[in-house]
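Hey, can you fold this one?
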Amino acid sequence: MTCMASTPPQYSSSLPSCLEKPLPLEGFQGTPDEVEQQWYDQVYLGSGDSMKQLTWRAVIVGMLLGSILSLTNLYANLKMGWSFGVALTAGIISFALWNAFVRLGISKSPMTILENTCMQSAASSAGYSTGGTLTSAVAALLLLTGQHMPLGTTFAWIFFIAVLGVTMAIPMKRQMINIEQIRFPDSIATAETLKVLYSEGKKAAGQAKALLYSALFAAVNAIAMAAGGERWLGTVQQHILGSWYQRTIFFKWDLMFVGAGALVGMKTSLSLFIGGTVCWALYVPWLESRELLPVGAGYRESVSWTLWGGTACMVVASIVAFLFQWKSIIRSFSSLGAMFSLNKRRELTDVEKIETPMSWFLAGQLISLGALGYLAHASFDVPYWMSCIAVVISFFLALVVCRITGEANITPTGAMGKVTQLIFGGIAPGHVTANLMAANITSGASSSSADLLVDLKVGYLLGANPRKQFIAQFSGIFLGTLVSVLAFRSMVPDANTLQAFNAPGARTWAATAEALGMGFSHLHSIKVLSIIAGGILGLILVLIPRYIPRTGKWLPSPIGFGLAWAIQWNDSFLFFAGAVLGWAADCLFKDKSREYKVPCASGIIAGAALTGMAVLMFSIYQASR
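Sure. Predicted structure:
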């Protein structure tokens, strides 16, 4: 890690840093080359070219914080089937911790804002990118076989899936962040939070107060809901709504979704609301009327039917939309040809000099493919050709996951894992283990890719060096793999211990592998028709706006519409409510909204997420006593 700085930060005297410039939320216009050059000139210069970023202390603190947070995510996933992104949490903790070190004389200088972005990248890979695989497919394998994977195999499997996903994000970053400039709401919230923390001055003080008060309001709301408000609301609504309550058509005041809706915007949020209403108010009752679902089945049983059509809509729309960008795709991969060219390489642009090289993508994919192929064959009797197919599928489905994360602020790795399980149910019927572990490659790689893109978008908004961020993210994989695997084996020494946990993710993966491992003939005809209908709808929602542009503003987003079929109606409603509040603020208080909407929404997300994690950990601790 030779490029890590150990000298004090040097700031450009002629150009303002990211602390003095507004976040480039509106993006840039022009050709791909012009868009990238505008970012370089207006955002990167004055920040990434002169501010300390990739340092040993940033990477080490990030790895340690991420490893600690990985323990909470691991335990919460086993008990509740839920995990939290750690980047924002780690960023706030690191800021407070390092400032305390400076006051105590332990450190001579605080971290710069760009050091914090590298720290977050290391924390994310250590705390998030490795644990999800353990509590889903690896735990499901334990349920199915009654035995753990060998410890060495587990370390290697988790590590190389993370490497596959992290390097897979390299070409996606230039396409989705540089060129398409997808918003990534969590990234906006994190960048705005860091900017407020590190800024000084009257405006920054006002935004900091807005962020703080919003976070406190969200925290108080989360505590009130956990202390009995949610139970009271649920009891009242169950009496009033009856079976509609079990169809997730109820009111649960979770402010994190409201804040995300304000950042996502009206089109995607309205699409979520429309899709959710069609799914839970029309489709689920129809399934009940056909006696395919019992009345009042609940979310977990219902979603096993609804997610197929919604996932097909998202998959087809995302891949078709991506293929329409074929010129940019070719451009992203153009440097691969230069690697093997005997001629003199063309001169790199300013942006290409600081972007992660495509050679790193190629090396990561080939090494991971070889390692995962060998491990899958030796440990699970999976043919090498099946591992190759799984990696290829992973790339295309990672495109879907990353786009959904950027547009809707939700990472549907579980749904994408189902797609791979469905494919291998047809390719290798009867091979349950192959079905499970091939889908694990897709799910794990997709999760790592989306996680890195969220971090890279934060760096993009603040003017960070993307290559240095990638190095920090890659570094976190090592300690994250070590800690998460050892912690998982300690908490779950055998299958009987796992049975004592709820382990909803593991149970879902195991059940799906058993069902789809027997082939398409065991998939209900209604689910097959849902897949076909969802795919056609996704294709239509991409093609019509492309060839009849004036219809674009009237048609729903295929990502939002499809995603609503995999989440509860209440969550879709809260997204829409947040978008309506943001739209109203823009209309009624235009100037104030431009200044305070993002800090307020960011504060709501931060406060709700941090408090929710603390409440969840406390409840799990109480239950374990």
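DSSP finds 25 helices and no strands in the chain. Let me know if you want another pass with a different chain boundary.
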